[in-house]
Structures are given as structure tokens and as C-alpha cells.
Design goal:
Oligomer: single chain
Strand order of the largest sheet: 3-2-1-4-5-6-10-8
Radius of gyration: 16 Å
Strand content: 15-25%
Number of helices: 5
Order of helices and strands: EHEEHEHEHEEEEHE
Structural class: alpha/beta
Length: 216
Amino acid sequence: MIRLLLLGATGRTGNLILKQLSENEQVQVTAAIRDVSDSSRLPKIKRPIHTTIVDLDNILSLRKATSQADIIVNAIRLRENISRSALITLDKRIREGVGSMEGRLIITVGGAGSLHTLHGQRFWQDPAFPKRTLPRGIAHAELRDYLEELPPASWAYLIPPPVYNPTGSRTGYYNRWTPSNDESEFLNRSISYEDFATAVCKAVSERWTGVHLISN
């Protein structure tokens, strides 16, 4: 049995991850929420949803929530106007709450801004990158660089392509691309939120580590 804590469960991607994980009887999921009222924002599924209230700014709260978890899935989507170090700070806070990472894994929903393009640049530097989400794109590039310096057994970072479709259907199909110094071809791909959630669930059951580019 895999014991999993899902952060960001009330968001659109988190909702779909929670819904699909609930189909796997070998995974015991606990959804982290900020307030009791947030339970109403969780998906309606057949299996009971275990929840725990977590204050991300309180290390003791994080420590209590993560104490029994083998895997933490970080599907938190911070608001657009964030600092370039905001996602690194969040990851460090989660790790501080977890304590020892031995035998444990943090799987993070990544961002297309972190993708490598030609001449050593990142996709967030491309003129086509949406200005509205630019701060988050930069923060994801910083987060990816930071994660790649950590012991590989402790993390996985899954990146969707720029065309990340919230209303696309669930086909159950996805491709896993190998990261490289030039991921420009991946920029032309797409995936639905549903199929990306399927990949996250597979990352949980198979304990993927490292960077993975996920598309249809």
C-alpha cells in the first residue's frame, strides 16, 4: 500500500489526480486542504476522501501531515505574480516538514516555462510565452534547476507542454519524452489535464524519479 499526501488537491489538476488515484486500491490518498470548507471543492468520487488541514507556512503542520506519507504529490499552483524563487521556497518548506527523505518521494507538477530551447535558453524567454504567466514560468525554470542538483531518488518533476488542455478528454494515453538540452520539439505537443493526471498516477505507482516531459 502506498500512502500519499496530495498538496493542491482543490485545484483543477489536483482534482483530476485525486479522482484517478482513487481508482487504485493500492494507493491510500490524503488530500491536504487549508480549511474544512475546502472539502466542497474536492471531486465527488465513490471512495471516501481522507483529508487533513495543512498550513504551508507552519512546519509543525506540514510535519504532521507528511509523517505517514511515502509519496507527496505537489500540485499546488501559486498565483501568477510570484517571485522567481517562490517554488524553490515551497519545495524546501515541504522537505523541511518531511524531515528525512530516505525512502520518500516528492512528485511535482511542473511548468512549460522550464523547458530548454535553443542556445541555452528556456521557453519562458520565448516571445510567444504568455506574459500573464511569465513569473510562474521563470519560477518553474528555477525550480527545475534546483531539483536537478538534489539526490535524484527524492524527486520527480513532470512537465506538460504549452498546450495544456483543461477540457480535453481522458484517453489514458500519453508519451514520456526524455529531457535534453533542446526540448524545442516538445513545444509543439499538447495534452489534456486528464491524460497528464494519468501520467502523474503512473509516476506514483512506478515511483518515477527525475524530469519527465509528458504529452500525447
